[in-house]
Amino acid sequence: MPEAVVSKHRQIEQALRGLIESGRLQPGESLPSELKLAAEHGVSAGTVRRALSTLIHEGILKPRRRSGVYVQEKPRQKIIGVMVPNVDNPDHARLVEAVTQGAAERGYSPVLFCASKDWRNYQNDKMPQVHFVERLAAMAPMGIIACPTHVPDEELTRARMRELKIPYVITNDYWTDCRRDRHVCADQEAAVRMAVDLLAELGHRKMTMWMVPGDEWPAAGKAFLEQVNYRSGFGQVNLSDDPATWVAQFLAPEGREKPTAVIVPYYEQAQHLLGVLESAGVRVPEDLSLVCLGGLPVPKPHEVDLTATISPLREVAARALSILIDDTEESTCHYRYMPTLHVGATTAPAAPDKSPAGTKPVLVSLQR
């Protein structure tokens, strides 16, 4: 056989290896036909067939009858990726714990990416979450359980998981644009209604919900205003990055009646707000009742026993694992689980209300 033909055969073989190793040809993707490859490389179909035959023999390619030649799909390993914003957050820590325990019970090993920690570790890396996904892809994981981390490369991360054909499930309490995803979360709107109902039963008519501006607030804010209206109360949604801004407005002598209760979405925000209120001389719950949408089933010894809704994170983790391991063909699904309510030390009955009845809810937006 002429040496030139052998050389071409090796060149085609190496070119295809390069396309596969670089990810330009993905597992499960079909190759162009032999005739097309022959035309591209300026060789005969027999030369192409010989190159393909070598790669098929090595298990890199797989022929399918009447369909063509495909890149061999890697067998999925017993690995589950987990992406969370911050393991110092009790809910995120509980989610990681629940996923780790559930995965171990089924013989899987978790690989963790923590945005707050790993972002610091990769100061020169503008896309650490994307690169985590790419490193994990090399391990052929069963999938990734992703709690949105609100880092700059988040949307790129989701797109990259799709490109690399890594199965994933989004788990978060607040709604993001998950219409194309598999999504499991606690029912945050139900949590808001629980909080409003508790406060209404304690006699609170003037309530406020303090939230940091962001994409996640409208659904929860709308649920808050609707439920306050249903309970014939007066509600405000206040948007501010800083609890001190809200407390300053709360204390300002503007001649209007102040709210007697506040709902806060995040555990860290609630703890921060308690400190600011204490510094300002506002007593909780004597002057202001507080409910947190997300807390610990059992408070830490050194922290206030918050009245809080408790996310059912074990159920969320179990469902997310089941989707990845058992229902791998399901492309889109949405599950929401009901939270529970823990009545702690930060709520108390309201003082008698002397304001006129019939006040309607309003939306108040504070500048950042």
Question: Which CATH architecture of the largest domain is right?
Answer: 3-Layer(aba) Sandwich
Structural class: alpha/beta
**Basic shape:** elongated
Biggest beta sheet summary: 6 strands, parallel
What Rg is obtained from the alpha carbons, in whole angstroms? 28 Å
- In percent, how helical is the residue content? 25-40%
Mean pLDDT across the residues is 81
What topology, given as strand order, has the largest sheet? Answer: 4-3-5-6-7-13
Look at the structure and name the CATH superfamily of the largest domain.
Response regulator
How many helical stretches?
12
Low-confidence stretches: 1-5, 357-368
Write structural notes for this entry:
With 368 residues, this protein is an alpha/beta fold. It contains 12 helices and 14 strands. The chain folds into 3 domains: 3-71, Orthogonal Bundle (Arc Repressor Mutant, subunit A); 79-185 and 313-336, Response regulator (Rossmann fold, 3-Layer(aba) Sandwich), CATH 3.40.50.2300; 188-312, Rossmann fold, CATH 3.40.50.2300. Helices cover 40% and strands 18% of the residues. Strands 4-3-5-6-7-13 form a 6-stranded parallel sheet, sandwiched between helices. Helix 1 crosses helix 3 (45-57) and helix 8 runs parallel beside helix 9 (217-230). Mean pLDDT is 81; it is low at 1-5 and 357-368.
